[in-house]
Design brief:
Layout lengths: L19 H4 L19 H9 L14 E3 L6 E6 L5 E6 L4 E5 L7 E5 L6 E6 L5 E6 L3 E8 L4 E9 L4 E6 L5 E6 L3 E6 L5 E7 L5 E7 L13 E7 L4 E6 L3 E6 L1 H4 L5 E6 L5 E6 L3 E6 L5 E6 H5 L11 E6 L5 E6 L3 E6 L5 E6 L4 E6 L5 E6 L4 E5 L4 E6 L6 E7 L4 E6 L4 E4 L1
Antiparallel strand pairs: 1-32, 2-3, 3-4, 4-5, 6-7, 7-8, 8-9, 10-11, 11-12, 12-13, 14-15, 15-16, 16-17, 18-19, 19-20, 20-21, 22-23, 23-24, 24-25, 26-27, 27-28, 28-29, 30-31, 31-32
Length: 424
């Protein structure tokens, strides 16, 4: 087997997966600063800054390992392959890329073309065999891995709606769903053939997020597994759908939540038994996924003590469940992260980031939380103590999101300036 120098991806056509344990270790420990476009300022530049007492001090530090800068506009979509060191990004330049994360600099594997507006949703399937992109042009495009990820073959395209808002894969079956700005959700199968299964109409506002609910137990007598999709909308409703019949298992409307909230994002508990949904006004509701029972409603603003904050800073931008502790992390545009005890639903601690927090995610199997912010940084926290363990710098504008790889040892960011940085 011959390998591409630098990427570790096999060159021949044999469809055998690259050994990720070997591939993820080929990034040199020492950064090549001469090849990095955003490395520290030179000594001469520092002397010039010091000479001008009135000059604004600018932090140009950069502790990333390497970068990907093929995009010419903001990066909205980022995801990592579950088995090999590959990243998918898509952005406001109407283009996506699959590229290597284990080489310096990263190398493009496939350019994902065919969209006419920003790529905002999608990623790799849980088994790594499929890749889907969804755009503001209403298109959903499907690629399949060839040569175990070293090539991606375009397979099909769907254009049923005006604007795609999210894409979600089923965790164990070859199915995916996407939501749209007109309130609809669509479900398709990938195998044994590409096929439309359901179109779901039940929201009067934009369908803002959706997730498949894994079956609680195997189907009896070897029957078909029950498939359910949960969707939320900015009209304040939550719906559980039975797939492929398209029948609503339950629907929760604003009066049942005791207030009207435009739901904007969600996070499924690792067990699949409950879901946390966040609203644009700073509220979070915890709902049992099987019956639709409302377990708790949390006022994040009240927990922060900042109930007088401007309306535009109240939105819940990130939600993350911890696998090893009974806590839920919730981030706000206001620049704070609240850590809630999931037994009492009282806030255990508040982490002050300063600027809008765009995403939060726990490193699997740990109590360490990663957050990204519009101040251009990504930070790792210990939620038990509230201690900041590490901060990644190097962006010149906001970090819109990130993806974890290598069990959380690698963090890859997506920024507003169109550059992705890799931190180890």
């Amino acid at each position: 087997m011959n390998y591409d120098e630098g990427t570790g991806i096999p060159r021949d056509e044999d469809e055998t997966y690259l050994d990720p344990s070997a591939a993820l270790d080929i990034i040199p420990d020492d950064e090549n600063e001469e090849d990095h476009p955003m490395s520290d300022v030179s000594d001469n530049d520092e002397d010039q800054t010091d000479a001008n007492d009135d000059a604004e001090e600018i932090d140009m530090s950069n502790n990333s390992l390497t970068y990907f800068d093929k995009h010419t506009d903001s990066i909205f979509l980022i995801g990592t392959h579950p088995k090999v060191p590959l990243v998918v990004t898509g952005g406001g330049d109407d283009t996506g890329y699959v590229w290597t994360s284990n080489s310096m600099p990263p190398k493009v594997v496939t350019q994902l073309s065919g969209h006419t507006d920003s790529l905002v949703a999608g990623g790799f399937s849980p088994d790594g065999e499929w890749l889907i992109t969804g755009g503001m042009d209403g298109r959903v495009r499907i690629w399949r891995a060839r040569a175990r990820g070293q090539k991606w073959e375009f397979r099909d395209s769907v254009e049923e709606v005006e604007e795609v808002t999210w894409v979600s894969f089923h965790p164990t079956q070859p199915l995916f769903a996407f939501g749209a700005s007109n309130g609809s959700a669509w479900v398709y199968s990938l195998l044994p053939r590409f096929e439309h299964l359901s179109v779901l109409y039940g929201h009067s506002g934009s369908c803002t997020a959706g997730v498949f609910i894994p079956a609680a137990s195997p189907a009896p007598d070897g029957g078909e597994e029950e498939i359910n999709l949960l969707t939320i909308s900015d009209d304040g409703t939550l719906i559980s759908w039975s797939i492929p019949t398209g029948v609503q298992s339950y629907k929760i409307s604003p009066p049942q939540f005791h207030y009207e909230a435009p739901w904007v994002n969600l996070s499924l508990h690792p067990t699949g038994t409950s879901v946390a949904i966040g609203a644009a006004d700073g509220k979070v509701a915890i709902v049992g996924t099987k019956t639709g029972s409302i377990i708790a409603t949390v006022d994040v603003l009240g927990a922060t003590g900042k109930t007088d904050m401007p309306e535009e800073e109240r939105s819940v931008e990130g939600i993350a469940w911890c696998e090893v502790m009974s806590v839920l992390a919730v981030s706000l545009v206001a620049g704070v992260i609240c850590i809630f005890d999931t037994g009492s639903w009282r806030v255990r601690r508040t982490l002050d980031v300063g600027e809008a927090v765009t995403k939060v995610e726990f490193i699997p199997g740990t109590a360490e939380l990663v957050s990204s912010s519009m101040d251009g940084t990504v930070t790792r926290w210990d939620v038990r103590s509230g201690e900041q363990l590490w901060k990644g710098t190097g962006h010149s504008s906001g970090v819109l999101g990130f993806a974890l790889a290598d069990g959380g040892r690698t963090i890859i960011t997506a920024s507003d300036e169109g550059v992705a940085l890799i931190y180890k």
